[in-house]
Amino acid sequence: xxxxxxxxxxxxxxxxxxxxxxxxxxxxxxxxxxxxxxxxxxxxxxxxxxxxxxxxxxxxxxxxxxxxxxxxxxxxxxxxxxxxxxxxxxxxxxxxxxxxxxxxxxxxxxxxxxxxxxxxxxxxxxxxxxxxxxxxxxxxxxxxxxxxxxxxxxxxxxxxxxxxxxxxxxxxxxxxxxxxxxxxxxxxxxxxxxxxxxxxxxxxxxxxxxxxxxxxxxxxxxxxxxxxxxxxxxxxxxxxxxxxxxxxxxxxxxxxxxxxxxxxxxxxxxxxxxxxxxxxxxxxxxxxxxxxxxxxxxxxxxxxxxxxxxxxxxxxxxxxxxxxxxxxxxxxxxxxxxxxxxxxxxxxxxxxxxxxxxxxxxxx
DNA sequence: AAGGCGTGGCC
DNA sequence: TGGCCAAGCCT
Length: 364
Fold this sequence. Notes:
The protein is an alpha+beta fold. The protein contains 15 helices and 7 strands.
């Protein structure tokens, strides 16, 4: 008898599976990516839903699949437009990886999303969760799709006290789901686990009295549902002080900068900015020096207009915002000059949208 | 293994 | 209001 069978007998597993699927088929939410089983649409939705709430994703998903309806459309699109469609969703490497992967599907698999685990799972940005989710939902493959919901639900069902913040723990849940998953309706089973986690088996205050698998739940029986899952805490983010400038010239052109292709907010656009140090030089002096040495423009910088704070998962930016007038531009400047109306064609992170909003409200 | 990588909503 | 999260992946 293995560890899982000690927790639940095969007969009870059969009943759990049936109860879950019946509930899902009756209670599932109507969502745009559930209109059909198009593997491409399912894939896009799963990537958008990584670490992101359903309500946030819905409008992005609708616009995205309208603009890029097929693998081929996305594969052939300009990265600039793709990033713009993702603007505000966060974790921008997701969409750059998705486009990389879709290009490979277009070229290596004739535009058809591969249904084989090794092929699909080998694509950029497709990890163990996304692989299981897309292949089960779109192709009815009985492959586990273990996300945060599934770990929460199953930790309670089976009373699993391993720390879900540890990468290794996910494999424990994959083994459990392998034993539980329906081979007749793997799509409904996987989605049912996630839907249950989203609607009933919620993190803070689970609705156990409404739960379709309450009588299968070890945590409910023991009254420990609010203590599970166990999740260790992350350290709190450090703070970076920065100075940014909204630069214009006599023709009213605005000067913007493209971020590097790796790292934070890769390939997005921003207003020229630099990290500042407390000490000898003022922020204005540090900014002016940065513009001349690193950006190739000489400018007159005005008084401090305000401060923008932006909180990332792992980092806080405190940005002092200035306005500046460009006096001289080097041939090798790293800044792009655009008119106000063109700004909307470029993808900016929310932090820099806040900077523009501050500038725009002061000017008008 | 642990940390980088966004954002908005909730209490 | 600051901490915690929400359908993870990459290095």
